[in-house]
# Entry
Amino acid sequence: MNLAPLQQWFDKLAPRERWMVMAGALFTLVALIFVLGIRPLYQARDAAAERVAEQRRLLDDIEQVAQRFGPQSGPAVQAQSSGESVIVLVDRSTRERGLSSYLKRNQPEGNGGVRLRLENAPFDELLLWISDVQSGQGLAAVSASFDPTGEPGRVNANLVLSPVGR
# Structure
């Protein structure tokens, strides 16, 4: 790039005009640095701060709901007082929920628990069933693993359920 014509034009300017051109160039340079460099950083910081504030509000809401419902210790007493074994509870509740055809293995696990294997089960129904046995039967999912099947919305699941408080 040949800057000779630009240099000649600049040299022909009066000293006062040269100062004005240099001040304009300096102002343009500072404005570009601000617009292209500093301003996006401030905008990103503000957006991140807003996301953090939103997550904090969500956490506060969740904590209020948790305090309103309190600890979930009541169902454990209910399950233990019914006198049914965990295997019988699981068998009955899977039949009620329509999941018994997916239950392939149901074997006792130490401390009164049960190990389950469900194959090609509908994921949404399975989660609702787990929620039901935790809240209504006093069982807790000690461990759970879910593997997708080839069919959307279906999973193979390995679960270990145990009575709460044991």
About this structure: The CA atoms of residues 97 and 128 lie 9 Å apart. The beta strands are 103-109, 113-122, 139-148, 154-163.
